[in-house]
Amino acid sequence: MQFKNILPAALAVAAVSAQNDTSMMNLTSLIASNSNLTGLATLLKSYPNAADSLANATNVTLFAPSNQALQAVQSVLGSANGNTSGLVTALLDYHTLKGIFYASNISSTPQFPHTMLNNTLYSNVTGGQVVECRLEGSTAEIISGLKQTANVTQANLNFTGGVVHVIDSLLQIPGNFSSVAQNANLTALLGAVNATNLTSTLDSASDITIFAPSNSAFQNIASAVGNLTATQAAAILEYHVINGTIAYSSSLTNTTIKTLGGGNVTVTIVNGTVFINSARVVNPDILMSGGVIHIIDSVLNPINNATGNTTDSAPVTAFSGASSGTAVPYTSGVSTPTSSISNLVASTTAVAASYTSVVPAGGSAAASSGAAGGSSSSSAGAGMQTGAVGAAALFGGAAFLANI
Fold first, then answer.
1. Which residues pair with 149 in a beta bridge?
2. Pairing of β 162-167 and β 208-213
3. What is the pLDDT of residue 53?
4. How many Å apart are CA 370 and CA 390, to the nearest integer?
5. Pfam families, from UniProt (predicted)?
6. C-alpha to C-alpha distance for 264 and 287, rounded to whole angstroms
7. pLDDT score at 37
């Protein structure tokens, strides 16, 4: 796989020049020779095991954090206890793609290439955790955990084992379901999952897609929720999970997909709006340790899988006769985030407005675990905000650090 049209012409010319100057260097020499990467060079000297692993890698693409981006690492290593070398190795692995990907081929359709991060403490994605790569205007963005965005500022620095792109902020390793749901203020879904004893299942799952109803979606059917048994609630939640397939937004197409509970959901794309049955996807591609979350505007119902909602501006409930309540169901005992991350709570209906669907040989993109993320690469992306952050935020949530 390759990327597409990334940066302005001036940067592209500079990148070609740099590429000619560095193509015979090994990675360590390239990093040491670049004034924007002195912080990374210092970090690698401090953690020789992590440095050796990176230096020996071949056929790879490194998103190299600039000096400014690496400011965030200082607070992480200062606040983390125990195996900081393991943390640094995981972080470097997450910045390293399998395969050589040139910036000139990133496109506006997001792609999701696999990284070298296979440590099960951090990732349960077959083939390695992914980043999202996309072209936004003339800027190549790399999107990581918590939907944080890093920009490519220096592209196509060749070395003997692959290529380096310098980025302006650090990529964040995605957290597990619970930490992501908490950060995205999906507290009703998190409370419902806790109440039905599905938390550990989703936190430890591998290669799953979750269509996650927003808090308002649960509130819109508050009267129906009050009449559900635990078994019925669990069945509804399982209807929101695709097991064994990571269906990133750019691999979705008009199709039906079997859910964890056994029933099928129907995916429909109309003028860039993605529907799951009659629910809209309003925030796609939130990465987590075991796959991806797409936020939807209504709760799916396994016994009412009607499609539609293509012209109605308001969410359509799949629970006949249900009415909204003044409180959000299932949120009792679930803490509300003290601050919100704008990219996680943003809402849009133009999810796939500029996408060019790529259907792999042999079938529907959405139904193929390889195309959806099981073992294939895609790209287009974003990373993390500049400045110091806590260890839990950088590594996707305290749940991971507690196990170090």
1. 143
2. unpaired
3. 82
4. 34
5. Fasciclin
6. 23
7. 96
Looking at 3.50.30.10, 3.30.70.1350, 3.40.50.2000, 2.30.180.10, the CATH number of the domain 177-351 comes to 2.30.180.10
Report the distance separating Cα 122 and Cα 116, nearest Å: 12
Strands 255-258 and 149-159: unpaired
Rounded-to-integer distance, Cα 96 and Cα 152, Å: 14
Reply yes or no on whether the pLDDT at 108 is more than 80. yes
| Helical pair 48-55 and 84-94, crossing angle rounded to 10 deg | 20
Q: What percent of the chain has pLDDT over 70?
A: 78
Q: Where are the domains of the chain?
A: 9-172+392-401, 177-351
Is residue 273 within 8 Å of 267, Cβ to Cβ?
no
More confident residue, 306 or 82: 306
DSSP 66: P
173-197: per-residue pLDDT in tens? 999 999 999 999 999 999 999 999 9
| pTM assigned to the model | 0.84
Summarize pLDDT for 333-386 with one digit per residue, the tens: 898 887 778 889 888 888 888 786 544 333 333 333 332 333 233 332 222 222
The type of residue at 223 is S
Contact yes or no for 213/189 (Cβ under 8 A): yes
Q: Are 354 and 272 in contact (CB under 8 A)?
A: yes
Alpha helix stretches (DSSP H) within 239-388? 342-345, 369-372
Confidence at 307, pLDDT banded by 50, 70, 90: confident
* Contact by Cβ (8 Å): 209, 294: yes
What does the longest C-alpha to C-alpha distance in the chain come to? Answer: 69
By DSSP bridging, strand 149-159 and strand 139-143 are antiparallel
Strands 60-65 and 96-98: antiparallel
Q: What whole-number distance in Å separates Cα of residue 185 and Cα of residue 166? A: 32
pLDDT at residue 105, rounded to an integer: 77
Among 75, 40, 69, 64, residue whose Cα is nearest residue 401? 75
Element (H, E) at 17: helix 9-22
Q: Where are the beta strands (DSSP E) in 160-240?
A: 162-167, 208-213
**9-172+392-401: CATH topology:** FAS1 domain (2.30.180)
Spatial distance between the Cα atoms of 343 and 352, rounded to a whole number of angstroms:
16
In CATH terms, are 9-172+392-401 and 177-351 the same topology? yes
Report whether 153 contacts 181 (CB < 8 A): no
Kindly state the average pLDDT of the residues 272-289.
95
